Amino acid sequence: MKKILIVDDEKDIRFILEEILTENKYSVVTIGTIKEAEEFINKNSFDLALLDVLLDEKSRDGLYLLNLIKNKNKDLPVIMMSGHANIQIAVNSVKDGAFEFLEKPFNQERLLNFIKRGIEFSDLINTKQDLHEKIFQSFDFIGESKEILKIKETIQKISISDGRILIEGPSGSGKELLAREIHRNSNRYKGNFVILDSSRINISNFDENIFGILKHGEVIKGHLEKANNGTLFIDNVNDLPLDVQNKILRVITDQRFKRLNDITDITVNFRLIASSSIDLKKEVSKGNFREDLFHRLNVINLNLPALVNRLSDIPLLIEYFFSIFIGNNYDYKKFIKNLDSFYSYNWPGNVRELRNLVERIAILGQDNIEKIENIIYNTLNPSLNIDKHNSASTELTLKEARDNFEKEYLVKQLKKNDGNVSKTAKSVGMDRTALHRKLSSLNIKH
What we know:
Blueprint (H helix, E strand, L loop, with lengths): L2 E5 L3 H13 L3 E5 L2 H10 L4 E5 L9 H11 L5 E5 L4 H9 L4 E4 L4 H31 L7 H13 L6 E4 L6 H10 L8 E5 L8 H6 L1 E3 L2 E3 L2 H4 L4 E5 L6 H13 L1 E3 L6 E3 L3 E6 L3 H7 L4 H7 L2 E4 L10 H12 L14 H5 L5 H16 L3 H12 L17 H19 L4 H8 L3 H10 L5
Parallel strand pairs: 1-2, 1-3, 3-4, 4-5, 6-13, 6-14, 7-10, 10-13
Antiparallel strand pairs: 8-9, 11-12
Helix pairs in contact: 2-3, 13-15, 15-16, 17-18
């Protein structure tokens, strides 16, 4: 049963609203003063609020309570009411986050319609958030290539420690997923995994978001406090402005901070994991990243390879993503019989791009082979992925062009077979010894 908070200083209005909403199967709490409402909002949860604009205090009104609720839960629907309605009050309330504005005397049907839509909207937002979190957290760190097996082995060693970790790798390679895997295998797995995405930082309210704030007597926690006893993941740390880098460094050094508008020192205990899509050491040499912060973050370094450097994992990843989007009983091999185009494509978007392709097939292709083939062709068409050096190929001799083709082909085949020469020889139809000679002649390391 959905709980609705009603705040109105008129007893008769409270009684009428409670009667209407109770008859319509809602749980109702009615309050007549700002002070009581403030105490209730700070200590209790509810699903929707009906607030009168003008209440029992001159200095604080319904818009004050609206802001109090929105600071606690920005997605909770609030309907403002007023018997002295004017355009400016309505505009101000919606601007401050009200779901709707209801003029007194109100129409019962209109009231119930507003409440129904408000709760439906809130449920939709919460469902999307829960679904996204469950799907993302359910993803496993998939792969059996040499590079990934090495990282998995390292995870087991580092997860039990609290050492700071820097994860580097191209965009879409799975850095956040790896960070979650470390958190999930650590002693902090019961704590929060809090993400600070540096690429989306709003400098104007950064301090409030990271340190928290004491606002109208209410504590609003920032990222640092939310990560207490858990893990703080600073994604795209390379995008942090230099002045923000200094603030992060100070927290790491002092292990304490103050909320905005507060004089109390807050001490927190979290594990710090950072990620970067570019070489952070080079950014230090360019003066774009603080050297002292780099050394603080780079206690343990993990480097995630691009998908093109772990091609042998593609079948495992495809099968795994289909199990996520369709179910474990889906046999993709009945509908995707040839993976050659998957191996020859450069995957600029890495694992994220492969996941998106599988999701596209799951939604649009399903069991239609022709549709699936069209989706794959339109995404991985080799003509859309021509190597930039190919334009010079006409200037080569026939032997040079053939050697280049063979080298590129065999390098791809080796990656496809995770560097195993015996498997590669079998897949290309060559004797193992002959392949060894060919690899040596083309100067291909194996």
